[in-house]
């Protein structure tokens, strides 16, 4: 056998073994044994075939070199967002100090003057309407001000300032705007700003997929191989975005719910790349590969252990995608929880055995998963309590409530705060996962998320809170909540395991930095906005005008928040408005309400909206129109749903 033929044989086996085995390529000394098993195979020695093979190997290995920089690029972008968030936090804190100082000065002057007229004005400005002030035909008037006599854009000085920033206002309005749902499938779309960010992420992956790839059918194998690499390098990001205790929340200031949309888009991209990789490899083997590279029959190819492992990984991740769809989660949430754990462990095992390059990324993903689930959530964040179950007047809503003495904090470090369970308190709009072992063995292994509807424990300056009162509003659906309702009929007191708290302080920090705060809730969204309103008026971070609008579907939903709690908010100065139920009076004029508030308030107005998709979109787009008209608005939308 000539030297050229030996080199050719080694090159071909180098290609085959490097692409279809789960270990590094063979060395030349191992190749001869492989050829002894198949001495009849004809190996081409013509320069054209050799050059083709060299080029194909170079494209494949070059792609693996390029793709290793992908996560470095992601880290650079995350660092930029972290710096932006740091600057935003510093700006907000400076605004807090200004508002707190101005409030202290105003309070001092008021006490010194002790003017009865000022006192009467304060009482008038804090007036609230608890029923029937907002119908589907009438726009709510803010306080006692005749809004229709006010200029839409404020005073002339403000109008002159606004006119010079028209381009910026139009851009901000465009980024805030949320398009209609996709027709036919009725899929809700995010805001334009979120869609552009997701498009940039997808564009980065398209760039890495196509960079330095030849657009020739004979090199299609390299295209299919690159799809598998794109899948692999996105694994740690997918698991990082799925973790409840993720550093991205601290670095970007966004809540788990806000980051969850990116987790889903990353998962969809990965499933698409897996599909491209799987179909691409089959298509290349059936139609495009040279005869002298095919080797075994197609049956032997498809039943090769490596290919079967790849099919197992592909099937596991595709099933993960379909069981994660919103329609599936809503109907079979318990099955979603169980399958999510089993399928992802199986998928990672298949992927580990399928291709050796994936192993560092599989290890990183497993580390994220186990640290989040076992170390943080089960060991450090879990607490057992005994809770009372109360069936509310509508018969389909439960109130889970409990209380306890808060342990004295020994230290206030950042790590200590992350380690603390719900027993050490929580922040407004945080949520917890609950498990109820009394419902059965299967339910004891499940954890279901609910927003904390009660106010966070009040912390006086320099002191620690001493007692916590926790309440959860639980809308009865099927599965877990239905079993919990049955349990409440026979046993209104149960043992509950709480995992949490989780959440982000970004909405609260934004509201604190604004001169005016507006909170809009739809239905059970009151569980998000009520604790925020309570914190704003009871904290010692300055006084601001706070408006709370709660849109209910039926009168029975009013029992979700006790009347005395709403009355306390009113006494604190919150303008509370609860329109007639939509089942009786139709939908209220939310755009008119937002437009009036944005036009009549001086300074920056912070909006927090929490409700169903329809309400969120209406409020978001009303804010977008107000921004285009010149209003100074900050908006956070806290969507509930898992």
From TrEMBL:
Source species: Hypoxylon rubiginosum
Protein name: Ferric reductase like transmembrane component-domain-containing protein
Keyword line: Membrane, Transmembrane
Superkingdom of the organism of origin: Eukaryota
